[in-house]
Structures are given as structure tokens and as C-alpha cells.
Amino acid sequence: MSLPSVRRFSNSSRVAVIIWGLMIAGNVTGQSPAGKDLPTLARETSPAVVRLVLRDQTGGELGSGSGFVIGSDGRVVTNYHVVHMPGATQAEARFTDGASYQVQGVLATDPDKDLAVLKLQATGKEFQAVHLGDSDQVQTGEHVLAIGSPLAGFSPVSTEATVSDGIVSGIRDWPEHQMKVFQITAPISPGSSGGALVNSNGDVIGVTFAQLIGGQNLNFAVPIAYLRSLSTEGPIRTLATINAPAPDDHPKAEESAPSGSYTGVWQSRKFSVSGAAQMTIRMAEGTANAQIFLTGGEVSSAILSGYAHRTGENIWTVQLSSKKPRLSVRGIFRGTSFVGDYTYTRFLTFDRGQWLLKKE
After folding, report:
1. pLDDT of residue 16
2. How deeply is 301 buried, as exposed, middle or buried, from its count of CB atoms within 10 A (0-12, 13-18, 19+)?
3. pLDDT value at 9 more than 60
4. Residue 182's domain is classified under what CATH number?
């Protein structure tokens, strides 16, 4: 039996990570308890929710996440981990009406609380913004909606502005970031990161950001109160600036990037299949190339490429993908082990799962 792991949800075209759909459940009339009905909540909020697409300097898509507009001047809130992506130098925000705007830069970030505020490049444009609620008043049992773009770009159908509903099932401590978080039953998926968590009055009370894998429907959101403490008065920074490797990102002389062969298992989370897995990887100057061999599934081998980023002592994050087969892998090398997620798509087939590997 494997231990639960936490997945943060930005999609990545090399990385991939996972699924779910739109399911609105309520009482018989579709009424949100003690508030607006569900269709009204979705209709009023969705136009201010965006899909964020991150690209490298050549324009190649690296990944995507969600966000929502908080100011008519084009300020957008998302998760820090959505925009803090190795190699990302530009981004665009796509709205439900088909409009698209470039991200001018980053106004504020709080890596500890996993929050970022972006500014869209749109002179003279007035955007529809969400109304921010009082997350300090949220109680367990409240009805909520999650709105975002799960698996956008990976699903065979459009999933932008997907709406799901549930309740606040708990208010928890998140020790890693020294903050409180909302545990919710409203389903979220990769690509939902940075999405809006809305209460029954139509107020945004949180930012969806993670799910606990290994359980059932254990999803989490950052309370909007942490956003209010962020100052957006400073200069605008470019994405290239916040994603530039810091001095600590470079390995010490005695520490080298992971390389060589890793073996272990893969397991589908959608189908009851698993098998052996082998990965041979090489990293150099922020890039990574890998060859994989698998047994027990539709894909037997693939060559992947992408980005590598040192995130701690003997800890490296990689985001890899191949076009044929359309496979994406995101994971972490920690010491001699590798733990990661994959997504695989072919026509109308979609699979997601996990890798657990050890260095040979």
C-alpha cells in the first residue's frame, strides 16, 4: 500500500497531470443552500475565470493553470506554482468568450502561501472582476463551487471554465506553508490550480491548489484572506525574472544532477493496470532528456524531453513530454528515488497515473 501524496495542479504539456469532469449536484431545484442557485453562480463568475497558458521563449507551450480577475484593470490571481515554471518567459490568459490577453508581468508573489498576482496587457480594457469574500467567516459544511480549467489542452473536449460543487469539509493546518487551508469536496484536477472557490453568495473565498492522492475527493484551497496581505504596488516583474535560476538553484560542486537508470513500477489511476517501468535520464543546463520502457500497458517505450530545476539539496523537479506517444511526466528526484505523475492521451482515450522509481 502506498502512502498518500499531494499533487499541485498545473497542467503541463510535458508534464501532465490528470482528469475529472464537470458535475453539478445540488438539491432537486438546483438551489445553492441559503444563496444563489447554481446556474446563476456559474454564469456570474465564469466570465472572470481564465485559463493561463505558459510558454517558453520560442513560444512553445509548457503548461497551463487557472486564474481569476480581481480588478477591472486586468489583475489576475493564480497559484505561484502555476507561473513558477522552469523556462517560462511568457503567458497568456484565455477567457470563456474566446478573448486572449498577454500577461504583462507579475505584480506580487507569495511562494509560502502559493499565491501570485499577474497583470494583463490590455490598455483601456475594463475586465469583469470577481467579488472577494471574507474567508475568515467560512465554516465547515458551507456549500462551494470550484471553477477552473482542469486538463485544458489535454482533454479531447474543451474543459475551460469547468464548474464543480461540494462543501467545505474541513479547515486544516498546512504545516509545509504555515497556513490554514480549506478542505473541499468540490472536485478539482490538474489545470485547476489557481481556480476560484466560490461561496453560495457568489463571493470568491479561496484559490484551489492541491489534492491529496491516495484518498477520496480530498481537495484543498488557499483562503482568500492570504491574498489581501499581498502588496501589488511594486514594479512589475517579468515571468523570465521570477523563473530565472537563483544561486541556490545551481548544484554544489559535490552534488550532481540525477542521471542514469531508474527502475520501478507505474500504475494507472483510471484503469486497473500497472507494470514495470525503467527511465534513463540525462540533465544539462536546465534541460532534461529521458528514455522510458514500460510493460503492461499500451505504451512500451518513448523518448521525452523537457525541463529540470533544482528545488533543494539533492531534490530536482522535472517536466517531460513526448508528442508520439502523447505522454507527459512531471515528478521529483529526491536522493536516489523518483516519484511522478503521468498523463497519456490518444484520440478519445485518456489515462493518468503514477511512477515510483529507484536508481539502479
Report:
1. 30
2. exposed
3. no
4. 2.40.10.120
Domain that holds residue 346: 247-359
In one-letter notation, the amino acid at residue 311 is T
The mean pLDDT of 260-274, rounded to a whole number, is: 82
Cα(341)–Cα(321) distance, integer angstroms: 12
Looking at the structure, tell me whether residues 182 and 126 fall in a common domain: yes
- The answer to whether 86 touches 212, Cβ cutoff 8 Å, is no
State how far the Cα of 200 lies from the Cα of 80, in Å rounded to an integer: 26
Distance CA 260, CA 128 (A): 50
The answer to whether the beta carbons of residues 220 and 183 sit under 8 Å apart is yes
Note if 193 is an active site residue: yes
Is the pLDDT score of 280 beyond 80?
yes
> pLDDT band for position 294 (50/70/90)?
confident
- Shared domain check, 238 and 271: no
- 31 has a pLDDT exceeding 70: no
Cis-peptide, bond into residue 150, ω within 30° of zero: no
Whole-angstrom distance, CA of residue 52 vs CA of residue 74: 13
Question: Alpha-carbon dihedral of residues 255, 322, 266, 12, nearest 10 degrees?
Answer: 80
> If 0-12 CB within 10 Å is exposed, 13-18 middle and 19+ buried, where does residue 66 land?
buried
Strand runs labelled E in 33-161: 49-55, 61-71, 75-78, 90-94, 100-110, 115-120, 131-132, 143-148
Is residue 263 helix, strand or coil? strand
Indicate if the pLDDT at residue 18 is higher than 90: no
Across 321-350, average pLDDT = 82
Neighbours of 290 (CB within 10 A): 20
Q: Are residues 237 and 255 in the same domain?
A: no
Cell numbers linked to 303: 523518448
Cell 521525452, located at residue:
304
Asked if 280 and 176 sit in the same domain, the reply is no
Q: Is 114 a known active-site residue?
A: yes
Catalytic residue among 13, 64, 114, 169: 114
Q: Which of 81, 84, 143, 309 is catalytic?
A: 81
Kindly state the DSSP code that residue 27 receives in the 8-state scheme.
S
Indicate the pairing of strand 131-132 with strand 203-213.
Answer: parallel
